[in-house]
Every structure is written in structure tokens, then in C-alpha cells.
Amino acid sequence: MNTTELHARREKLAREFQAILPAESVLYQTEDLRVYECDALSAYRRLPLLAVLPDTIDQVQQVMRLCRRLSLPVVARGAGTGLSAGALPDTQGVLLGLAKFDRILEIDANKRIARVQPGVRNLAISEAVSDLGLYYAPDPSSQIACTIGGNVAENSGGVHCLKYGLTVHNIQQLQVVTIDGDLLTIGGPGPDTPGYDLLALFTGSEGLLGVIVEVTVKLLPKPESARLLLAAFDQVEKAGNAVAAIIASGIVPAGLEMMDQMAIRAAEDFVHAGYPRDAAAILLCELDGTEAEVDAHLETVRRVLTEAGATGLRCAESAEQRRRMWQGRKAAFPAVGRISPDYYCMDGTIPRRCLPEVLREIARLSSEYGLPVANVFHAGDGNLHPLILYDANKPGELERTEEMGGRILELCVSVGGTITGEHGVGLEKINQMCVQFNAAELAQFHAVKSAFDPDGLLNPGKAIPELHRCAELGAMHVHQGRLPFPGLERF
Amino acid sequence: MDHSVVLQEQVKAALGAGTPLVITGNCTKEFYGHRVQGRRLETTVHTGVVDYDPSELVVTVRAGTPLVQLEQLLDENGQMLAFEPSSFGGRASVGGTIACNVSGPRRMVLGAARDFVLGCRVINGNGELLHFGGKVIKNVAGYDVSRLMTGAQGTLGLLLEVSLKVLPKPEAEMTLAYEMGVEESITMLHRWLQQPYPLSASCFDERTLWIRLSGSSAALAHTHRRLGGQAVSDSEAFWRCLNDKQHEFFGDTGPLWRLSLPSDCKPLALPGKWLYEWNGALRWLRSTASADAVRRQVEAVAGHAMYYRGDRQRIDTVLHPLDPRLVPIHRRLKQAFDPERIFNPGRLYPDL
Q1: What is the rounded CA–CA span in Å between residue A44 and residue B85?
Q2: What chain A residue is nearest to B126 in terms of C-alpha separation?
Q3: Is residue A483 predicted with pLDDT exceeding 50?
Q4: ipTM rounded to 2 decimals
Q5: Among A293, A425, A447, beta carbon nearest to B218
Q6: With CB atoms 3.0 to 4.6 Å apart as the test, which of A107, A390, B20, B314 could cross-link to B38 if both were Cys?
Q7: Segment 257-316 of chain B within 8 Å of chain A by CB
């Protein structure tokens, strides 16, 4: 399609959507669409045919019906902070922006819930209920900007998952609009619902099953006390062993984070969090609960860390110091962004016991590819974020980075882990899905998708690869002694 | 013993013959759904802990393993299944527990069985052995089939193996009792729940509220001072007895309903005897009221009711009828996993 044809098609479609939406809610000029060309994984960019910005559920239903009728792909988008190109538009489809759904509809302190629209920011929920002594537990690092609808679609985590769970553990009910334009209530105000657990199925489904238009989240009372310990180690292995020792002592920390030397230095130079620049690794261990409990656990963890060979141990003495110590960790990605023209963030999860082995292999890959890696690790739940440093302006470097990233993810799968802990598959990790799942498993995923979206219009090409794509990749994944795609031709 | 290959052959044979299969463990939860006609598929041979490293807080176990055996292993390592499932007199299997999403007193604080399921191996209705999720706490690759299987009562596939997140056992627990009525209990509990008290269970009837505290000894003593209440002598026995339906309330053999509701809703106007758990969100009702009457009342507060025990002739469906808007999706999901309808057909609802 040439530019003139494309523009004519856009104008024609825009008229269809303007019949059901206010004119200003339909964007089809190239410069207006530019805003939506990528999410936070900006290496992937493309323009949708048009973007629509409804602000009522009824409008979303009408948009979906029209898309179904015209067989137009639909990609839903919150704040666009996703890191896997999950909100990357479809060039032949509609970008459905949900930013206007930004109202908190109900706060019920007695029930400890908040009913909110999908475009409400994660942190805005905790801020709105703070005076009631409550908060919303999942706290992805992007919480200042990311929206709750996106959190549900990705099953987002954060630094407190080990103790407080992921999004799926902290929501109660969803309102979703199907591709047919039907409005469904999934979950409910009671502890369980009859029939299948559609709430769990929807959470983390990356916009492939329906569009989330309302979320009821569970709130928790703010802990009476929270203390943060920082331990320095002269070897990464020692830090890894210390993590296992803390868990083995019977304590579940509220947060347990690890950073390697490159990440420590980048963060320290950026926010001056007071991190020891010469340490090989640091652990941040947060304990929360009642005063009495936290005091007791603090003593135990100090002892465990010392026995594990910590070379330095520091406890935040004030709320301000604690905030600053966390800030270093939460700003680790942008901090690395300052020391390298570009960086590529991976998101594998591994059994914690495999950490030393996996870090050694990542270091080996780093020298093989000549690309430095900074490691940031949600040590409590095994979620590893290696940041590969590269320069997109150097020819071929992005391709090498992606290849190396793919090998890191395959490494995570080979030790019994997963290619994505919290960022989602999106478009980015679609090839690695062929490594983690065999053809029958992928076919089962497609069958689930068809139960909701038989024509495959919702976020097509994301999250679950087509079987022929895996075969073409030649990912000769041997799963339990079987070849994954025995019935398919190989190229 | 790993019997997955044998089980897979049995499923394929059933597929070939077009015979439905009744997935059977130790038959402790047949009453959770409708009776299924078909050939029994015994899972009790498929037993054993496949992987357990206490420092990972994850255990992987075959479906036929007796629940008490798993709990004993965890206990020896100072850990527990945090959703506190009933063992149904010591006979329940892990597979049945997960398939029915069985959760006990700790559910309202730490979560239900589905909250602790990390991964599973299943045989689907095409006779394929599939693996979803994994042995790690954070995992968002692919749809969450493992949690979808939880509570599906085997209608979407045969559970072979599950990976579960486990937690350390609390250092200490104590149970406190208060003399108060139902409405006051609901009010008090919801006031306390907005504070960071270490509450881990609650139960009340028209005369008494019992709460359980879990945590460090210091935290318990401190909370007891603040909340008052009479310490109950054998805390563990009290909750075990309640969880295993050995509490005197369950002694009667008449119709028993299990109601799942918003925790703070007022007592419902239905005749009968009541026992409340999960801060008021789980309500047991011994009543001869009609199914229509019970369902009308719970639907008015967006809850649901299961006919837990009693004469099955009296009712059309054990579980609460589905929201009609969700029925087509349920049917299509059944079709997606079990197109020939060989796994427990009709157990949940007639057309699933």
C-alpha cells in the first residue's frame, strides 16, 4: 500500500469510528499516531492504522463490535510502560488507548478493596488509600507511570512478590469486554466463584482474550514496621548462598534484592543511595510486620548474613534512608541507561539454587559476545534482570544483543526456569516461547485463545507463537526426548 | 512411582473407545460435584515427591500422593501448605485437593490453593502430556493454565503433577475467644483487619468469635495485650477440628450449604443454623430452605452457594448456576481442553 492509499484507508476507517465515538477520540494522522508507535521496548516501532481513545465502557463495546465486523486487529494499551512490545500496534489494526479510564470508582476500607478504571496508575491507588492506612501491594518499578489495566494484562510483579504475591493474588474482580463487544464480570467479591478460574486465566493474558475495563484490587494494611538491611559481599556466590540461608531460617522477607558490581556502581553514581562501590554484590533485605516481629527477624537476618560472609552490613535508620536505599534499586534500569547508549533488559526466572551457575554462564556469554552485562535480581523470587549494554548505532550490535538475550533466556529454561517472570512475552520473547513450550502445549494455548477470540483479532502475533514460526526458527527443542514439531517440515 | 505413561495409555484407550473417564483418587470429594458415569481412572498409583528443596519454597509432587504424606515432609522441614487444606480424614490426595481448590482457615489471609499453584503436568483430552507453568514463583510465559486447572475438578484434563509454593510455618500460634454476637463479630473483625495484626484465621457463631494469631511469640503476646480475649487451650486442635468438619456444628446429617460472600455483608435472612469462617466470607448454613431461596439471597450480594451435603434429589445442580453470560466461554474452554468430553463429563455442570 502506498502513502496515498494508506491515507485513504485511514480516512475511510476513521469515518466508521467517528460514527460511534467523538471525533477527537479517533486519531488517524501520522503525527498523531506517532505517540503510539511503541511501548517502553522502543527497539520495536510501527504505526497502527488508527488509534481510538474511548472514555466509556459502552464506547469500548462499540469499538470492539466494529472491529469484529470489519475484521480489524485490536491492540489495547495502558501507559505504554511495558517492556516486551506487548502494546506494539498492528499496522493493519486499531490501537485502543485506555488512558481516559483514569478514575478511582470506589474505595471501601471495610472490605479493603478499591474499584478502579484500568487507566489508573499503580501508585495512584496506594496514594489514594494511604490515609486509611492501606496500600496496594504489587509495586513494579514503573509504578509511578504504569496502569493497573496493564498490570493485570501482564500479571506484573515488583520487589515485594515473594511475600505479597503478583497481580493475580491481589485482585478480586474484573470487568472485561470481549471481541464480540460483550461486557463480562470475571471473579467476584466473595473468596471464590463457581466454574473455572477465569480471573487467573485473564491475568497475564497480554490482551489476547479481552479488554479490561474495570479492576477491583485488594488492599492491605500498611505494616506497622518495615526495616531495610543492606549487605555487601566480595563474591556473587556468597550473596546467592546468603539468600538461600535467609529463606532456610524460616523468614519470608518483604523484599530481597540483589545487584552485581556493575549495577551497584551505575545506581550509586546516579542516585547516591550509599551503596558500596567496591562490593561484588549487594543484597537488600526488607523485613516488615509488627514491631516485635521485625526486631526479632532483624537479629536473625543479621546473624545469617554475617555467617554467610557479608563484608559489610547496614540497616536504614530512618524512613528517608530506607527510601534512598530502595531508590538505588528502583532506579537501576535508568542508571544503567546512563552508562551505555542502549541497554536490553532480560526477564528470566530461575530456581534460586541455580543462581551461581547462571551468573557464571551469563558472564561467559558476555565475553563471547563482547557485550557487558549488569545484573539486577529479584533474589527472593528468582527473577533475574540481566541488562545487556550495547550501542544501537553500531551496525549489527542490536542483532548480537538480541541473540545473546535469547541465549540467556534459553539458559533460564534449561535450569528449570522461565523466559519471563514479569515483563510478559509480547513480541519480544515470542521466539523463546518455542524453546519453553512444545507444539502440543502451544496448540493448547491457541485453543484457549480461540475460546475467547476465534478470529484472532486481539493483539495478534503476540505472546503465543504460531507453530510454523517455531518450526521455521528451527528451534530444535528436545522436550522429554521428543522433537517439538515432528509433523512439520524444517527449513 | 511415576505412572504417567500408563495413565496416558488409559486416556488414549478411553479416547479410542469413546468411554468417559471418572478421575478417582481416594473418593473423598465425590460430593463436590455430580456423579459421573464412566470408567474409573485411578490416580492413587501415581505418587511421590518429584522435587523439594526447602530453600526454594517450592515442592513438586505427583497427584496421587496422599496429602498427609506431603504435609509431613514439609513439617519436618519447618514448612507448610499455606492454604491449609483439609485432609478429609487423612485420606485426601494432592491431586484431588488441587482439582477442588480445597482451602482452609488460613485462606482469607494467605490465599487459596489456586494462589499457591505454580505449575502442573496434565494429560489433556487429546491424550497429550503437557506441562504448564513451572517451579518458580514468577512466571508469565503463556496463559495461566495451572490455575485454570485448579478447581476445574478434572473436567479440563488429568492432573499428573503440581508444583506448589510453600511457606515456613509460623514460629507460634494462639487462639483467642470473645463472647459476642454475629454482627458484632463482623464489625470487630473488619476493624482489626484494617490494622496490621497477625490474624491468620477466624470463625464465629451467634455467641462466640474465635481468632487465630500467627507469628513470633513476641508479636502474639503484644497483639493479645491489645486485643484482649480468652486464650483457647488447644489452638491447633480447634482449627483442625473445624477444617475437618469435626466441629459439632457439622454433626447433623441434614442439608448443608456452603456460601461464599463479601465478608462484611449482614447476616442473611434464611432460616437455619449458621457458622462463619474466613472473616465472614465463608458461611455454612444448615437449613431446609429451598435452593431457590438460598440462591436468591446470595445472588443479591453477588455471592454464590454450593449444596455441600444433603439429599441430591432436592436440587438441580450442586454448584451455583453460572452467570449465563459466562456459560458459552465455559463450554468453549471445555471444548479446547477436552473436545471428546472424556474427563469427568457433567461433574461440574451438565454440559461441561
Answers
A1: 46
A2: A440
A3: no
A4: 0.97
A5: A293
A6: B20
A7: 260-264, 278, 281-282, 301-304, 306
